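Hi V.,

You were right to ask for the full record rather than a summary. Here it is.
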Amino acid sequence: MAKIYTLTFAPSLDSATLTPQIYPEGKLRCSAPVFEPGGGGINVARAITFLGGKATALFPAGGATGEHLVSLLADEQVPVKTIEAKDWTRQNLHVHVESSGEQYRFVMPGAALTDDEFRQLEEQVLAIEADSLLVISGSLPPGVNVSRLVQLIKSAQQHGIRCVVDSSGEALAAALEVGNIELVKPNLKELSALVQRDLTQPDDVRDAAQEIVRSGKALRVVVSLGPQGALAVDSENCVQVVPPPVKSQSTVGAGDSMVGAITLKLAENASLEEMVRYGVAAGSAATINQGTRLCSRENTHKIYDYLCRS
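Predicted structure:
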C-alpha cells in the first residue's frame, strides 16, 4: 500500500457555534465554540485517519492558533510535519442558525507564506518516499503564486511522487498543465471552467472529464455532483455513483471526506468503481453531521455497504 501525505498551504483553526437566530447589529448569543482543524489537505488526512488509514499532514503553523491546530491533530492521532510560520494560522468561523437551519461560513484569508517558508515546505515534500501519494488540497495563501505550485508539482513528480490535486481556479488549471496528475476532483462548476464551456447535459460532464484524461493532464478525474454523487473516468472506464438519500445537516467537509476516501482506495490499488463508491459514501457520511465534522468510519461503511448491494 502506498504511503499518503497531504499538503496544505493555507491551514486553519476552525470554530463552530450555534445561535438561535441571526439579525444585524444586535448581540447574537452563541453556544460554546467547538474547535477543529481545518484546511483542505489537513481535512483529507483527518478523513483518512477516521476511516482507519494513515496520512501525514504537511503544513505551515504559526502563532497560538497554529499551536492549537497542531494540538488538535495530535488528539486525533493524525501524524504531522510542520514548518514554523511567521504569520499566525488563520481562524475561521462557522455559525449554524437553529431557527432556520441556515449555515454561515466566515472564511479568513490564509496566512502569508514567505519565500523561505515555502522553500521549507518544498523540502519536506521532496523528502517523501518515491511512489507515495501526495494530496495537494485547498487554496493558495498570499505570497504563493501558481508558478510556485507548478514547480513544486514538477519537482515532486521527478522524485517519483504521485500527485492528487483538489483545488480550484488558476491553481487547478495550472496543476493540470503539468500533466500526469494521478487524480483530480473538480466539481461541476470547476470542470466547466477547465474545459471553458457550459456542461448542461449528463453526457457533457462525461465528455469533459474524458477530454482531460485523453489530453494526458490527469490519469483519473472524479467530478463531484452534490446530491447526485460523483462521476469518475480513467482511460478505460466511466462510473457514476449516486448516494442513498440521507438527512443532510451540513455540506462542510463532504468534499474533503470524499477525497480522503478515494485516496485511501487509490493507495490500495482499488478499482475506479471502488474508489468512487467509497468516496461517495464518505462524502455522504460527512453531511449527516452538523458543523464542520467529517465522515465517520461507521456511517461511511454503512453507506458503502448499501451502495455495494444496490
